[in-house]
Structure formats: structure tokens, C-alpha cells
Write a structure and sequence with these properties.
Blueprint lengths: L3 E4 L4 H12 L5 E3 L10 H11 L3 E4 L13 H22 L2 E7 L22 H12 L7 E6 L2 E2 L6 H11 L2 E5 L3 E2 L2 E2 H14 L5 E4 L6 E2 H11 L5 E5 L19 H7 L6 H13 L1
Parallel strand pairs: 1-2, 1-3, 3-4, 4-5, 5-10, 6-9, 7-12
Antiparallel strand pairs: 8-11
Bound molecules: NADPH dihydro-nicotinamide-adenine-dinucleotide phosphate and dtdp-4-keto-L-rhamnose (TDO).
Dtdp-4-keto-L-rhamnose binds next to helix 5 and strand 7.
Length: 285
């Protein structure tokens, strides 16, 4: 009844979904093999929709290399905008509800108040821009969509900031980490749970939502917590963004207000540190 297809199932969030679906005995979910899941191939996608006739799809597929995207605009746009549009078009045609993931990087990050879904977007990177374009093409094809903007995803799966810090922390005596970019980490396991909750609840409160863990931190404070919980004595030096040049510019402030997700979708959201403790426990197992 809730047959769900997952695109991008081998990425970080996709793997978290596999884990959570198994834990919850959510069995009516298909993690498509790569040859049936290329979101850039409309013919393959149509065959996949015809074969499965899904009630829901979850699009975890994306181009997520933030710095590389500055040089690979075309491919980033293809995956993040055109891929989302290909899926949305089929969702409209097949009456499928689309769950799609976007990012805090759609914001410029120049403010200092928690960002609402209605706040102005103004991406400052190619990744952020192409993700915003992806958000914007979906409503043209279907009314049945949930777009969840999330931020600073990490988990025990794939590559992410937590795993990078643990690796470098073991190899190096000192880490220099930016403290003037503020946001909220999100345990991808929590996000996966939220996505399945939306499906299980049968919600029709379609629309755009913010979803991260609760609280606010900087990358520096996040790194300090990771080292502390990981039992590492790595010296952590707070630096400014200017002291850590990167190809893409990141928002200085991208803390999102989750009131809408909590009230309209009934989501219970853990504090970032609580979830980090959980993830570190699993990484240590
Ligand atoms: N990671 C983060 O910090 C954040 C991520 N997000 C968003 O969350 C979502 C999930 O991110 P995350 O799991 O971390 O990302 P990953 O990069 O770990 O996973 C993305 C997946 O998409 C797949 N993919 C790329 N191109 C295509 C394609 N044409 N067709 C099908 N699959 C494709 C990739 O496959 P392959 O590896 O083979 O290319 C990969 O498995 C994305 O929408 C991302 O923008 C939002 C905020 C923060
Ligand atoms: C490795 C490292 C990073 N940093 C900084 C750089 C950057 O500002 C921040 C995070 O760096 P990363 O490259 O790990 O993460 P980054 O790719 O910027 O993460 C982003 O990914 C995309 C997909 C999103 O949608 C965003 O929400 C966000 O999670 O930490 C340091 O200051 N010192 C370090 O040693």
C-alpha cells in the first residue's frame, strides 16, 4: 500500500534509510539497483515507475560535492535540477508522492535568526543554486511532494564531517576548524526516520519543510564534541572562514527553524549532541 522506491540508495542517506527501514520492519520499500535508478534517464525511470507503480518515492540522489560543483556546473545542475524534475514529472503522472531532500545551502547565510521556509533564498554556491533549482521545478509537475531541507548530514555511513574529523584526529596533533559558520548538524539516521514517519503517517500536509537536529553550533564546536566523545586529545584551533579557503563559499549562518515540521508533520527532533552520542556509539561498535 505504501510501496516506496528509493533513488540514490547507495549514498549516505540512502544507506541510513536501509538501516531504519529494516529496524522498523518497513518492508514495502525498494532500494533500486543502479541500472534502474539513474535519475537522468527518463526512459529507464518510466520503466521503473511502470513496473513498481510506487505510492511514494524518496529521492536521495544528488550531486553533493560542494567545492567540485563550482567547476562542474553542468553535471551538478543535471543531477540536482533535471534529475529532480524527471522524477517529479513521473510522480505527477503516476499519482506518486515525492519525498525530496534539499539543503541549508539555498540560503545566503547573512542573517542571524533561525530561518523559516518562507525566508528569502539566495544561494552563494553552485551546489546551493542547483539544489534550489531542484526545489523549484517540483511543484510544476506535482502537488504531492514533501521537500525537506536539511543541513550538515553525518552518520556512520559514507563520507562526512564526523568521519573526517575522527580520521584526521587520529593522525594529527592539531586540527584547525572554522568557528564563524553556524548551523545545525543532522544525524542522517534521524532524517531517515522522519522520512519514513511521513509515509507511515499518511500525511497530506504537502510542502516545503526544514529538518535538522535541534540546537545551534559551529563546525569548530562540532569538531570539539566529536573529539571529546571519540576519546581523542587532538588540539582544536578555532579559525575564521578566511583562514580556510575553499572553492565554494558556505553560508555563515544557516540555522533552520523546524517549527513547521514539528507541528504539521508531528516530528520529534533530538538535539544534535544527543544524536551525535548515538552515532559515535555505533561508530565505536
Ligand atoms: N551530505 C550533506 O551534508 C547534506 C546533504 N543534503 C542533501 O541530502 C541528500 C542526500 O545526501 P547524501 O546521502 O549525504 O549524499 P551522497 O553524496 O552520499 O549520496 C548521493 C547519492 O546520489 C547518487 N547519484 C548521483 N547521481 C545520480 C544519478 N544520476 N542517478 C541516481 N543516483 C545518483 C550517488 O551515487 P554515486 O555515488 O554512484 O554517484 C549517491 O549514491 C541530497 O539531496 C543532498 O543534497 C542536504 C544537506 C546536507
Ligand atoms: C575538513 C575541515 C573542514 N573545515 C570546514 C570547511 C567547511 O566550512 C566545514 C564543513 O566541511 P565539509 O567539507 O566537511 O562539509 P560541506 O561539504 O561544506 O558540508 C555541506 O555539504 C552539503 C552537501 C550540504 O548540503 C551542507 O548542509 C553541508 O553539510 O568545515 C574546517 O574548518 N577544517 C577542516 O579540517
Amino acid at each position: 500500500m505504501n510501496k516506496t522506491l528509493v533513488f540514490g540508495g547507495s549514498g549516505q542517506l540512502g544507506q541510513c534509510l536501509q538501516h531504519v527501514a529494516q529496524q522498523r520492519s518497513f518492508t514495502d520499500i525498494v532500494f533500486l539497483p543502479e541500472e534502474q535508478a539513474n535519475i537522468l534517464n527518463p526512459d529507464i525511470l518510466r520503466t521503473t515507475f511502470e513496473q513498481h507503480r510506487p505510492a511514494y518515492i524518496i529521492n536521495c540522489a544528488a550531486y553533493t560535492a560542494v567545492d567540485k560543483a563550482e567547476d562542474e556546473v553542468e553535471i551538478a545542475r543535471k543531477v540536482n535540477r533535471d534529475g529532480a524534475e524527471n522524477l517529479a514529472r513521473l510522480c505527477g503522472e503516476f499519482g506518486t508522492t515525492m519525498l525530496h531532500i534539499s539543503t541549508d545551502f539555498v540560503f545566503a547565510g547573512t542573517g542571524n535568526e533561525p530561518l523559516l521556509e518562507t525566508d528569502e533564498t539566495a544561494p552563494i554556491s553552485v551546489y546551493g543554486l542547483t539544489k534550489l533549482e531542484g526545489e523549484q521545478v517540483i511543484p510544476a509537475h506535482t502537488e504531492r511532494y514533501f521537500i525537506l531541507r536539511t543541513s550538515w548530514l553525518y552518520s556512520e555511513y559514507a563520507g562526512n564531517f564526523v568521519k573526517t574529523m575522527l580520521r584526521f584526529g587520529k593522525e594529527r596533533e592539531e586540527m584547525r576548524v572554522i568557528w564563524d559558520q553556524l548551523g545545525t548538524p543532522t544525524y542522517a539516521i534521524d532524517l531517515a526516520g522522519a522520512l519514513l514517519h511521513i509515509i507511515e503517517s499518511g500525511s497530506t500536509a504537502y510542502g516545503l519543510y526544514h529538518y535538522s537536529n535541534e540546537g545551534v553550533t559551529s563546525w569548530y564546536d562540532f569538531a570539539v564534541a566529536i573529539f571529546e566523545l571519540g576519546g581523542l586529545t587532538t588540539r582544536t584551533v578555532p579559525i575564521r572562514t578566511a583562514e580556510y579557503p575553499t572553492k565554494a563559499t558556505r553560508p555563515a549562518f544557516s540555522v533552520m527553524d523546524k517549527t513547521k515540521a514539528k507541528t504539521a508533520l508531528g516530528l520529534a527532533i533530538p538535539h544534535w549532541r544527543t544524536s551525535l552520542v548515538e552515532c559515535m556509539g555505533r561508530l565505536g561498535e
